[in-house]
Design brief:
Blueprint lengths: L10 H13 L3 E8 L4 E6 L11 E6 L3 E3 L2 E4 L4 E10 L3 H9 L3 E2 L3 E10 L6 E2 L2 E5 L4 E5 L8 H25 L3 H12 L2 E2 L8 E6 L3 E9 H6 L9 E6 L3 E2 L8 E6 L3 E2 L5 E3 L4 E10 L9 E10 L2 H15 L9 E12 L4 E3 L5 E3 L7 H14 L1 E4 L2 E4 L1 H22 L1 H21 L6 E2 L4 E6 L10
Length: about 475
């Protein structure tokens, strides 16, 4: 990128560093270190049924790991962990599970990953703080779909569901683990659920100690120019450091994310290395409210901070060239998110503008309607040959709405019990979907973000 093509505001910042670069031509040794706090994105290879502490767990990286500008651990790298304990739910949680018809082991295995197995190197011990996940990680991307009415949206959702099911079937047919997939599906249908870690389960293993992968020689000119050219375009990934919650995060709160991959220009010039921090703030926040109004949250990034070791090298090179300490200029940017990862079931999505939002299927309104219809069916009675007969099937279904498996038994033999439990379930469903509070937007720390430069956040509408 030539000087004539740079923004006028950037040129004064580059002039002193260009002078340093002309005098500093010798290469600089840059350590390739993966710093503590880096999250390893892992996916389990196959379903396991742990019995005791120490049982091994095998997983693979789903995202590559970088240090400065080099990929030091490619996606697919094997990682080994072990069971370190079993989380036992409370008695109330176990009771609710039993009432809902789920029996078996209620223990949730706790995993800690402790060994890296690179494809072309010796095993490497690591220390991590591992967060288990019972669901799959789904990447949400900003879409450009046009607005539709209720019927159009329902048809579009149905088409998308069919497309998803077809792809799932194709993936299953191509998979080499058909027997294991069928076994897991059969186990999920049974009322008894053993303790297990299912195939495809994901974990975030956050490194507690640094990992050194040697060093590389980098031209001094490359080091001095890092961060001096404001990125005008480009997309990269970053790890969210500060968790966000529309119910608690205030407008103007600082938001910090760290690049998990380097950012290059179109000519492959390094602009920002891995580990660069993006500093921003929330531009709008609104908690969830009653009448099922969901929370709203928007944020953007306005500044970058290079890794501390790179800033020290820059200052040392500048001091060697001019014998004068040079202040590091503020590096202003405009960047927003165009994608993020969210746990399945979180209802989190992105609008066409890349704004986080809660997206719920319009079929959620069917739940209250079905619950009310079942209570009405249970309340109706048939008279035949002078005898009043209740509809046992409808009663059982109405009882299930209110108290799961226990409600099914009560409703089957008690007309009054079926009406009471069904009415309770219907009222709860109506309150949840129409009158109660909506969902808050929650983006926890270590969420993987897709960042696009030259993109700003917007404020919320006045209504």
């Amino acid at each position: 990128m030539s000087m004539s093509r740079l923004p006028l505001a950037v040129i004064p910042l580059l002039l002193p560093f260009q002078a340093f670069a002309q005098q500093s031509t010798s290469p600089v040794t840059v350590p390739l270190v993966v710093s503590p706090g880096t999250a390893l994105r892992l996916q389990v290879d196959s379903t396991i049924f742990p019995k005791s502490i120490g049982d091994p767990v095998h997983a693979r990286l789903t995202q590559p790991v970088f240090a400065f500008d080099k990929e030091v651990l490619p996606a697919g790298t094997a990682v080994v962990g072990h069971i370190v304990g079993f989380d036992q739910p409370s008695r109330m949680q176990r009771l609710q599970s039993i009432v809902g018809g789920h029996f078996g082991s209620f223990k949730k295995p706790e995993v800690e990953f402790d060994t890296l197995l690179p494809a072309n190197g010796a095993s490497r011990p690591i220390e991590t703080e591992t967060t288990p996940s019972s669901g799959r990680v789904v990447e949400m991307r900003a879409s450009t779909t046009q607005k539709r009415g209720i019927i159009g949206s329902t048809v579009a959702e149905a088409k998308e569901e069919i497309y998803t099911r077809i792809n799932t079937a194709k993936t299953f047919l191509k998979s080499s683990r058909k027997k294991e997939t069928l076994r897991d599906a059969a186990l999920d249908l049974l009322p008894y659920h053993p303790a297990k870690i299912a195939n495809g389960s994901t974990f975030d293993a956050v490194l507690s100690t640094p990992q050194n992968f040697g060093s590389e020689q980098v031209p001094a000119e490359t080091i001095l120019k890092l961060g001096q050219i404001t990125p005008e375009d480009g997309t990269t990934q970053a790890n969210l450091i500060t968790g966000l919650d529309s119910g608690h995060t205030a407008v103007g709160s600082q938001v910090v994310a760290k690049l998990t991959a380097p950012l290059f220009a179109s000519d492959h010039t390094l602009l920002l290395p891995e580990g660069t921090e993006l500093i921003g703030q929330t531009t709008a926040a609104r908690p969830a409210r009653h009448l099922h109004r969901n929370g709203q949250l928007r944020f953007a990034f306005q500044q970058v901070e290079l890794p501390a070791e790179i800033v020290l090298i820059q200052r040392r090179l500048a001091l060697e060239s001019t014998n004068t300490a040079v202040e590091t200029p503020d590096r202003k940017i405009h960047a927003g998110i165009v994608g993020l990862t969210a746990r399945s079931g979180s209802h989190l999505s992105l609008s066409d503008e890349g704004v986080p939002k809660i997206e719920e299927s319009k079929t959620r309104f069917l739940g209250p309607a079905i619950a009310v219809a079942l209570v009405a069916a249970a309340n109706s009675q048939e008279q035949e040959h002078g005898t009043v007969e209740n509809r046992g099937g409808a009663q059982a279904a109405a009882g299930t709405v209110g108290l799961g498996l226990a409600g099914l038994v009560i409703g089957r033999f008690s007309h009054t019990g079926a009406l009471a439990l069904g009415g309770l379930g219907a009222a709860r469903s109506v309150y949840t979907q129409f009158l109660g509070k909506g969902y808050d937007i929650q983006i926890p720390s270590n969420t993987l973000l897709s960042i696009q430069f030259n993109r700003t956040g917007n404020t919320l509408p006045k209504n």
